């Protein structure tokens, strides 16, 4: 069973233009949205708080503040709907999962930039 799953995962087309990023980095994800017959690109810009999975199952969570409300979105890396992932800033953090940012607001919720 596991051998067949591995075979199917390896047959997926992997994107080679995905930049390397980790938790704490600020990224812009250009995501293709299809509404009815129309198609548009929406850019979701925020901090990566979680990277999980491996291979074709790899996913990451991006968090941003929109009008004082925290908005999180989970993206699978190997989806055909992602047009581009651009790393804006490289953050300096000591954790792999930054779920504590959900409880922080204002200046304390900022992530230091790596120099």
Describe it.
The longest helix has 10 residues, at 2-11. The chain is 9% helix and 43% strand. With 115 residues, the protein is mainly beta. The chain has a five-stranded antiparallel β-sheet, with no helix packed on it.
Give a topology summary.
Elements: H1 2-11, E1 26-35, E2 38-52, E3 59-66, E4 69-76, E5 82-89
Antiparallel strand pairs: 1-2, 1-5, 2-3, 3-4
Rg calc:
16 Å
Please indicate the percent range of residues in DSSP E strands (runs of 2 or more): 35-45%
How many E-type strands? 5
Neighbour order of strands in the largest sheet: 4-3-2-1-5
- How many DSSP H or I helices? 1
Structural class call reads mainly beta
- What is the N-to-C succession of helices and strands? HEEEEE
Main beta sheet, described?
Answer: 5 strands, antiparallel
The level of helicity is: under 10%
> Terminal Cα separation, in Å?
46 Å
In short:
The chain has 115 residues and is mainly beta. It has one helix at residues 2-11; strands spanning 26-35, 38-52, 59-66, 69-76, 82-89. A hairpin with a 2-residue loop joins strand 3 (59-66) and strand 4 (69-76).
Features:
115 residues; mainly beta; five-stranded antiparallel beta sheet; 1 helix; 9% helix
């Amino acid at each position: 069973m596991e051998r067949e799953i591995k075979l199917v995962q390896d047959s997926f087309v992997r994107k080679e233009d995905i930049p390397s990023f980790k938790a704490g980095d600020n990224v812009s994800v250009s995501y293709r949205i299809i509404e009815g017959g129309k198609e548009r690109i929406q850019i979701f810009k925020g901090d990566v708080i979680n990277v999980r999975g491996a291979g074709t199952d790899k996913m990451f969570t991006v968090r941003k503040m929109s009008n004082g409300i925290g908005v999180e979105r989970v993206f699978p890396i190997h989806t055909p709907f992602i047009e581009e992932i651009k790393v804006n800033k490289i953050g300096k953090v000591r954790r792999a999962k930054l779920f504590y940012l959900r409880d922080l607001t204002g200046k304390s919720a900022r992530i230091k930039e790596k120099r």
